[in-house]
Request: fold
Amino acid sequence: MQWTELIVFSALFLLVTVMGFVAARWQKGETLDHLDEWGLGGRKFGSWITWFLVGGDLYTAYTFVAVPALMFGAGATGFFALPYTVILYPIVFLPLVRMWSVSRVHGYVTPADFVKGRYGSHWLALLIAITGIVATMPYIALQLVGLEAVLRSMGLNGGGILGHLPLFIAFVILALYTYQSGLRAPALIAFVKDILIYLVILVAIVYLPAKFGGWGEIFNDAQAKFDATQSKTDGILLTGTNQLQYATLALGSALALFLYPHSLTGILASRGRNVIKRNMVALPAYSLVLGLLALLGYVAISAGTKPIVNQATGRPDTNTIVPELFGHNFPSWFAGIAFAAIGIGALVPAAIMSIAAANLWTRNVYKEYIHKHATPAQEAKQAKIASLVVKFGAVAFIVFVDPQFSIDLQLIGGVMILQTLPAVAIALYTRWFHVYGLVAGWVAGMGYGMWLLYNIGNPAVNKAHFAGSALPLGKISIFGWHPFGASTTQIYVGIVALFVNLLVAVIVTLIAKRAKAFNGTDQTDPSDYHVDEDSPRVKPVATH
Amino acid sequence: MPSDPKTGLRWSNWNLLLIVPLLMLITPWFNMDEPRIFGLPFFYWYQFAFVPLGVLCVGLVYVKTKDKPVVTGKPDKLGVDDLDEGAK
Reply:
């Protein structure tokens, strides 16, 4: 047991716990019994709060442990996280402000709310809501994987169910203050999280390379390690077969990120269009940190860091690479701060994700199908309870099912959420797609994507299915015809599935239009998409 | 500024700058070790250089399109009921 680390960690954890409960009173509105308040923090966060909130939301603890672990294991392919988070902002800059405006005019809380307003179809909205919930659940579970990596590095590495007890305690606390304070809790805690993360990364990036002979030496060590392995796809540079995979994974991830309900929650909680635009300029500061952090995977190679064996599963857990690197090379008290940074880094996104999933459940399932005349207060109550269910579901996932399953599911989740792009993102610009086309495209893209993922195996780790998202082009077949021959060039499955989705959506749309099928009623007006905070047309916050 | 009140789309040529950061997806341009800077292979520092470039592009678009009028096209004078009538 590493007592110094544990005490520093616990002290910081206690601090954010207090903040989490106090947050309920921070920038308080008239009432917390409304989704605008509980689920969106009153829709009034300014540039700074949004920066910390969205930054804390997008750059999660799992990213912070998994990306360096990927670099450690596979090399350059893991660096896709940098291009992903650089191209992200130019891509979403224009659509996001439109989404904010239309949501502000009509009081939309979730992406599925928008789809329902745009197409007048609660079935399409249900499809989007379910996709969002299913894709978000494993994401929450992964935050626990990040948190547990830290706890186990501190010596809380017990076996069996009892070994998960520290994780369970941390999550009960998180669940309680999220229940009470809603989105204000992660918004306030994000300040602590991000300051700690920046502090730790800056120190690590200056101190560690100097300790191991400088960056040149570190890259040479990494190259030597990858040269010694059997695999032909690892190395400090990309290879002939994985360059397309690198680019399409970065692009697909960037397209997918703001389709996740939790990312949109942070955006809808902001005060106005300029807040969002300023954040699109300022958020890449986190990308810089993420890129530097990724390189720590190579530093761990030079340092000879060994992943610790997870006593619950009996396997080495590569996600412990970064915690172990910090634990062995920093003084105990600083390692404690670093662990707290990652640990608290898990709480912020987990809270926002559970709120987003709860909003989806409440708005697009509960209010739509179970209790049509729910009052705003009943909605808020329902969402609070749903957030508890979602969190404990995630804990149960980690405790009773192999954590590897969550990682697989997260991979699937990315491909799934990408299939909502035509209905959510393209619909912001045009209603050209017919609602039948969108549903058919969703079914086709989802089905084909899942089938492709299912068939990706990796004999090296003894997995026959769901072993990754890199698909050799040669495996793509259209009823037995292989358009790319036996090519071994890899591509990201999500992009292939999205292509199929769009293709089917276009074809079915053309048919539906020819048949003059009814395409739903559009509740929105073209001018809604440009309304700003000072307009008289914005819907008052937290009224019915 | 060209705009189409029917579709509600607004366009500024500055928006084209948003395409520039996407150039970092062309991997053959930078998938090499040399030249290194501070020991970082070209592959890595080239991509790091895109972070400030991306900020610059998005920042320029923000500043240059900021003072445009918020609502274009015809002013919205219709009440909710009128709009309902119009939809028929």
Q: What stands out?
A: Chain B has two helices and two strands. Confidence is low (pLDDT under 50) at residues 74-88 of chain B. The radius of gyration of chain B is 22 Å.
